[in-house]
């Protein structure tokens, strides 16, 4: 019985020695390849850090753009609500403003006409305004200046200046200004 046990002990001892040798061989191989692996890992880490910085910069730029768009939307909403009149009372307000500007400048209003066009998908109505006023040159300049400073939003499309007839073909130094303006009403 001793004999088989000693053979078994030799086999177990041999297996343990073989495992230790394999462990030492694996440790040796890992140490031999480790400088290359460490350098490769450092390169990969550097690439990942560079990529992270680029992506972080892109995210920061995206956040700034998002904030700017949000601010632009707020400014647009404010401009839309404060500058454009509602279509219900816009005509009377515009007519009163133009008449007041002409009167303040010392001009006589010959006529005001409106023409509206719906602007689809924008929530506004484009209103074309045609007006003629008569007076002297300095009054006309004062009137145009008043248009520029008005609290209402006007876009000047066309401007014509000619001599005004005093009813009997006499000019008396009077000028007639024909204006084509545009404004917008909220719908």
In short:
The protein is α+β, with helices and mostly antiparallel strands and 187 residues long. The protein contains 3 helices and 5 strands. The chain folds into 2 domains: 1-83; 85-186, 2-Layer Sandwich (Alpha-Beta Plaits), CATH 3.30.70.60.
Explained architecture:
- It is built from 3 helices and 5 strands; from the N terminus they run αβαββαββ.
- It is α+β, with helices and mostly antiparallel strands and 187 residues long.
- The chain has 2 domains: 1-83; 85-186, 2-Layer Sandwich (Alpha-Beta Plaits), CATH 3.30.70.60.
- Strands 1, 2, 3, 4 and 5 form a 5-stranded mixed beta sheet that branches.
- The radius of gyration is 43 Å and the shape is rod-shaped.
- It starts with a helix and ends with a strand.
The fourth-level CATH homologous superfamily of the largest domain is Ribosomal protein S6/Translation elongation factor EF1B
Q: Uncertain spans, ≥5 residues at pLDDT below 50?
A: none
Count of beta strands: 5
Radius of gyration using CA atoms only: 43 Å
Structural class: alpha+beta
User: Describe the biggest sheet?
Assistant: 5 strands, mixed
The overall number of domains is 2
Classify the beta-strand content into a percent band. 25-35%
Label this structure with key terms.
Alpha-Beta Plaits, alpha+beta, 187 residues, 25% strand
Task: Please render the helix and strand layout as text.
Elements: H1 2-83, E1 85-86, H2 90-105, E2 108-119, E3 124-135, H3 137-149, E4 155-163, E5 175-186
